[in-house]
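Rhomboid family protein structure dump, as promised
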Amino acid sequence: MKTFSKTIPYATYILITLNLALFVAEIQSGGSENFVALDSLGALIPEKVWTGEWWRLFNANFLHFGVLHLGTNMFALFFLGRLVELNLGVGRYLLIYLASGIGSMLVCAIVYQQSGNTNITLMGASAAIMGLIGTLLAIALQIWLKHKNPLNAKRLRTVIFVIVLQSILDNLIPQISFYSHLFGLIIGFLVSATLLLSKLSFE
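structure tokens r here:
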């Protein structure tokens, strides 16, 4: 019988709580669509990162622009987060989540700074959530490589379909940062693939 600590995804619930708490802070600071308030709480502004405000790379992952933005991300985190946490454990899960979110914000800051497009404000948990999708891709790929049967092939195709669909939506909706989603996905896949290979080497 599994213990509650292994069957209840506490880390996911804590992450959701942090996002909700920061959203309350946004409202109290002037509104969740108020750029002055979002700036003060740590939204990612590339030029400010390069002046030493590195904490924005972390904080930006817990801020959201409006209720719809928050709701869609928390809905995705609720389902994907629990799945990854229960499969890989709390430590690996948090490492993937934070590495995907912070790493994506850092790469975006570099890309936008180099392109001269510094009039950008990024925020949201979506890059970290895309890292979880990258994890599901790594898991599905690993299982398929070990057991190449129709069921595992179908699961792998399903994850790939979700990624393709998300990429299409990212390009159709101008408010969404395609780059942050892409980098989050790549970082999540690479980190989780490394963790999965490391785990196999000790088994």
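The first helix runs from residue 4 to 7.
lmk if u need the other ones
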